[in-house]
Amino acid sequence: MINVDPREIEKFSQLAHRWWDPGAEFKPLHEINPLRLDYIDGIFGLKGKTVLDVGCGGGILAESMAARGARVLGIDLAEESLKVAQLHLLESGKQVDYRLVSAEELARELPQHFDAITCMEMLEHVPNPGAIVEACATLIKPGGHVFFATINRNPKSYLLAVIGAEYVLRLLPRGTHDYARFIKPSELGALARRAGMDVGHVTGMSYHPFTGVFSLGQDTDVNYIMHCTLP
Ligand code: SAH
Q1: Cβ–Cβ contacts within 10 Å for residue 120, how many?
Q2: What CATH code is carried by the domain that includes residue 146?
Q3: Number of structural domains, the chain?
Q4: Does residue 101 fall inside a structural domain?
């Protein structure tokens, strides 16, 4: 059985033409991008590295990593998004490879291939996040770095990530997130360890509704990034 929710792919395909409009539905991703880019670059140094971006969408993170000198492959299962990502390269002049392939399938083709893997804001959209985590553990080289960003599951994350972001502030379209698919850091940590990875730092990503500014910090109650390594 393929580990994908067709409704999720349809949702992202419908919005695909909006990926590079920084004021539209994907505005929060454009705003957090410099923060997460600096964070991962600071940990392992992107320059000259071979990086896989799982669930790359329109390529917001993938392009920015390429701009820092990484060789990037972006994969997604929404064909429309990949077309937009590919087209945007003409405008930006960046070099990124994009492929319509699942992480699990790529893991059979390229085991222990990548220096680093980013899988951001994607696990909360798949039926079986554990299988993606496992595929990442297969795709990464020993000693490599894997970054998962997703949403914690608790009353505060329901209030802020669903009610606040989708209904009150309207940062995201309604129905973007399904609370039941949110993942606690302890659960993600367990999946990573089961796949043979070590869990390093967990960093919070917070949105300040009054200033409209995102920041990284200690508060992992809602959005967070988990850094894992393969021994
Ligand atoms: N990682 C990007 C985009 C996040 S949006 C960023 O942070 O900027 C979530 C993405 O996950 C969408 O592009 C969606 O098409 C993709 N996605 C959802 N299910 C997927 C699956 N099973 N395999 C690969 N990509 C998937």
Answers
A1: 24
A2: 3.40.50.150
A3: 1
A4: yes
Q: Low-confidence residues of the chain, pLDDT below 70?
A: 1
Give the pLDDT confidence of 21-74 residue by residue, as tens digits: 999 999 999 999 999 999 999 999 999 999 999 999 999 999 999 999 999 999
pLDDT at residue 1, rounded to an integer: 65
Contact 205 CB / ligand 1 (< 6 Å): no
* Region for residue 59 given its phi and psi (left: phi exceeds 0; alpha: psi -120 to 50; beta: otherwise): left
The confidence score (pLDDT) of residue 180 equals: 96
Asked if the structure places residue 1 within a domain, the reply is no
Residue 115 falls inside a structural domain = yes
CB of 63 closer than 6 angstroms to any ligand 1 atom: no
- Cβ–ligand 1 distance for 61 under 6 Å, the answer yes
Q: Which domain holds residue 48?
A: 6-229
Indicate which residue's Cα is closest to atom 26 of ligand 1. Answer: 55
What pLDDT score does 210 carry?
83
Contacts of 212 (CB under 8 A, 6+ apart): none
Take atom 21 of ligand 1 and give the residue whose Cα is closest.
Answer: 4
Ligand 1, atom 16: closest residue by C-alpha? 55
Pocket lining: 77 vs ligand 1, CB cutoff 6 Å: yes
Evaluate: CB of 12 within 6 angstroms of ligand 1.
yes
- pTM here is 0.97
The token pair at 26 is 């994907």
Three-state DSSP class for residue 146:
strand
For residue 14, tell me if it sits in a domain: yes
Pocket flag, ligand 1, residue 80 (CB < 6 Å): no
Alpha-carbon distance 230 to 136, whole Å?
A: 10
